[in-house]
């Protein structure tokens, strides 16, 4: 006749074996997922490296200068383009001293010309 303790130990061994199998299965799945993520990271880094190389090629100053000469009709700015004469500048509007002080929140200081 089988003792109750023997059946209990046998059940415990079976449960522990099943639990170990489940843990091992989960670990294998986690390792596969980690390997996939590492491959994705490596692919992403490679793509970034390629994009940086392309960016550096496309932004070479000599290449940009050649493209600008070919596609843009730029000429240096002449002084006549800036302003026809000094008289064309608009004059500044003189603000009243009291109104300027009220907006600034300070007390106006009288200059020697105002005294």
Rounded Rg? 41 Å
Number of strands: 0
Structural class: mainly alpha
Beta content = under 5%
> How far do the termini sit from each other?
125 Å
| Discrete helix count | 4
- The share of residues in helices is 55-70%
Q: What would the principal axes of the Cα set say about the shape?
A: elongated
Biggest sheet details: none
Element-level helix/strand string:
HHHH
Mean pLDDT: 85
Spans of at least 5 consecutive residues whose pLDDT stays below 50 are none
What does this structure look like?
The chain is mostly helical and 115 residues long. It has a domain at 25-74. Helices cover 68% and strands 0% of the residues. The protein is built from four helices and no strands. It has helices at residues 4-58, 61-71, 79-82, 97-104. It is elongated. The termini are far apart.
């Amino acid at each position: 006749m089988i003792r109750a303790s023997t059946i209990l130990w046998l059940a415990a061994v079976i449960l522990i074996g099943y639990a170990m199998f489940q843990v091992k299965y989960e670990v294998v799945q986690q390792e596969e997922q980690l390997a996939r993520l590492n491959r994705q990271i490596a692919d992403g880094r490679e793509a970034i490296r390629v994009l940086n190389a392309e960016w550096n090629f496309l932004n070479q100053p000599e290449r940009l200068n050649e493209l600008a000469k070919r596609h843009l009709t730029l000429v240096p700015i002449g002084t006549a383009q800036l302003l026809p004469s000094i008289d064309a500048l608009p004059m500044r509007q003189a603000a009243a001293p009291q109104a300027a002080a009220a907006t600034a929140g300070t007390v106006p200081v009288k200059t020697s010309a105002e005294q």
